[in-house]
Amino acid sequence: MSIHTPRFAAMLICVLVLVWFIPYVYGRATRADRFQLSGEYSPLTRRFMIWEMGPKGIRFRDEDGRLLPTREAQRLMPLVFPGNVRKWGGFPITLDGRVFSFEEAEKNLRYFSSLTPREIFGRKFPVHALFESVPEGVSLELPDDVLVVGADGISFLRCADGSLNGEKSVRFTAEIKRAGAVFPLRLAASNPSIYKPFDEGLVFIDGNGGIFQLQMARGEPVCRATGLVAPRDTLALIVEEHESRGFYAALAAGAGPYLLMYGDRLLRLPSESWDPRVNTLSLRSTALYRTMIEHDLSGVAAPVRYAALDRDFRPLRRYSALLPEAVRARSELLDKGLSLLTPFVLSQFFDLRFAPNPGFAALGVVCALGLFYACCRRARRLDLAALFLVACTGLPGCIAALAFGPLGRETGTRGT
Amino acid sequence: MGGDIRSILRAACMKEWIKVRLLFWIPFAALAAALCDVSLMYKGFVAMHGAPALWYELIVKQTVHFSRLSWVLAAAGMFFAALQFVPECSGRRLRLMFHLPVSYRVSMYTAVGYGLLLNLALLCAAVGGLALVFARMGFPRELALPMLGTLPPWGLAGFASYCSTAAVLAEPRPARAILFGLLGFGYVTLLTAGNGYSPLGGNMWPYVLACLLWPLALESAALRVKEGQR
Question: Which domain holds residue A399?
Fold first, then answer.
């Protein structure tokens, strides 16, 4: 018996499309309400408040799982919900022996959530915005040119017509070289938002790993070496200015997440489970404490890790929370259903993986084999080559074999 | 012998040219219209918000303003397949292909090769046209190249839609023809569903290889006519 090559090709296409399309449609059809955990360290109870975030808003629990009314919960986190707490007459408030006004609480509240796999591994262009750091008025304006990082210098292109501003390019490149930076640069980043309170310019890591900062003050370049050396395996650099002026950039390295602090300090965040491929890390800062939250995107069974840090980023308390049993059970049930339907899952980026539940994937293959065998018996023809395909690919293979078979050119074998 | 093959191929190519010569320009005209639309949209954006706002939207948000080209390329694949295979497959004429003194593969793969060239020409026209639009807007090479890198997967989707449409037309059994159509739709969706510029990046080559299976799938549909199977 020989294989019918054109039909085999049709079956392979069918399997390829189905191992992508089945999980894609299944995921959309079974999508449940969003459920996400977050949280905050309460300076009053000195324990974490767990936030359960869904489409209907946030529900608050304490570490013991007790559900708290919104008002009571937010009053336990006055520096995170200063607006509401002020309305309820909670300000000024004394915490840790310090008196905080509403204005101070609001000014120091900062949420930083850019350390995600998408931010770290996403495509970045060598094209950046360099704002005027000393603007004429109070607000920052989008520059009318872009900064392009090249192999041996930077250049400025006018947005109006794409022409090169040669004089500015030479001037700024010379300033960078004067500061001691070596081209080609390893990484560079700026914050292109006009809504930021002020501008810290372009932060870059030069060819030797040194961290530099380039700003434009009244049209003139100001470049300074911070004297810091970035970790060798730095993957991404993110610049974000905030009025609280704690840090102005973050570095994602294989060795850990780092913050670039004012006063030229590079500080490693005390993450205990850092893996930039699957972790998202967010940091909420208040005038008193910081709360670091790490989500593991590899599966619903992974815990969400909380750490309360003091103003110097020293850990005060750690806590791990699992998603509620009902959410995990539903996710596991959906995984079983998907595994039953297809033993492989293909994502658009040609990332072919085994189904999440191997046991149910095997059961799905057995069911597909049974279905295929029953169809063969009905047709009084056992197609062994196609049977092998079904054994390897489960239901997608079964659909392909039934639609495009028989696969063998000689098809006389009778079923029992 | 070599001369025979050359004359057979020339005749087969001539046959394909006769089939497409009157209407092949329609997808190119649709492409030109879509490119004009992109150019005018950029012009309007600059007039409303200024050139820096446009540039920073492209750099930061990676907004794909030219996504209509994906459907032009996919629809063009269907159109070319219809032009070439409707005359070939209607009225059980496909059977004749298997009774010619030359191998059916010569006729069929010449037709597919012709279709591939048409799709390729359209993709090149799309890349060239979009490059012209970008050059007119003055976009830097560092930005324009990744933006242009969005088009090849769509070109591949055009070829898959071409082959699947041809398979739908060639397939004698309606249920299987519908399945070929759905597979084509799924494959096109897979290649056009990404966000941002060059969404597949270095992951495109497996899809290029997988696309090589599509002409064989078309052959499997045509062979059912020869084999008299339903």
Answer: 5-31+332-404
- Per-residue confidence (pLDDT) for residue B2, from 0 to 100: 55
Nearest by CB to A20, from B139, B190, B194: name it: B190
Residue contact B62–A144, C-beta within 8 A:
no
Same domain, A116 and A208: yes
Distance between CA atoms of residues A105 and B75, nearest Å: 57
When pLDDT is cut at 50, 70 and 90, the band that residue B1 belongs to is: low
Which of A277, A309, A342 is the endpoint of a domain?
A: A277
Interface test with B, best of A8, A147, A159 (most B CBs within 10 A): A159
Does the residue A416 lie in any domain?
Answer: no
A120 and A100, same structural domain? Answer: no
For an interface test with B, the pick among A17, A18, A389 (most B C-beta atoms closer than 10 Å) comes out as: A17
A361 and A384 belong to one structural domain: yes
The one-character DSSP state at A164 is B
- Using CA atoms, how far residue A206 sits from A69, A129, A179, A212, A248, in Å, is 51, 18, 11, 7, 18
Best of B61, B139, B168, B213 to disrupt the A interface (most A CBs within 10 Å) is B213
DSSP strands (E only) in A73-142: 93-95, 98-100, 110-115, 127-128
- Burial A214-227, CB ≥16 within 10 A → b, else e: bbbeeeebbbeebe
Q: Do B198 and A13 make contact, defined as CB atoms within 8 angstroms?
A: no
Do A177 and A211 sit in the same domain of this protein? yes
As for how many domains chain B has, the answer is: 1
State the nearest Cα–Cα gap between B212 and chain A, in angstroms: 9
Read off the pLDDT of each residue in B58-67 and give the average, rounded to a whole number: 90
Instruction: Report pLDDT digits (tens) over B188-223.
Output: 998 988 778 888 877 788 888 989 999 999 999 988
Which residues of A are less than 8 Å from B51 in CB distance? Answer: 144, 159-160
A223: tokens are 């470049």
Query: Looking at beta carbons, which residues of chain A come within 8 Å of B197?
Result: 123
In a domain, A189, yes or no: yes
Is A165 part of any domain? yes
Residue A23 within a domain = yes
CA pair distance B122, B115, nearest whole angstrom? 11
Same-domain status, A363 and A244: no
Please give the average per-residue pLDDT across A92-99, as a whole number.
91
> Which of chain B's residues have a Cβ under 8 Å away from the Cβ of A142?
50, 52-53, 56
Is there a single domain that holds both residue A312 and residue A190?
no
CB contact under 8 A, B176 and A162: no
Q: What is the sign, positive or negative, of the torsion defined by CA atoms of B67, B68, B69, B75?
A: positive
- Bridge pairing between strands A256-261 and A265-268: antiparallel
The number of folded domains in chain A is 3
A46 with A91, same domain: the answer is: yes
Report phi then psi at B101, rounded to 5: -70, -5
Domain extent at residue B66: 2-226
Q: Is the pLDDT confidence value at A56 over 90?
A: no
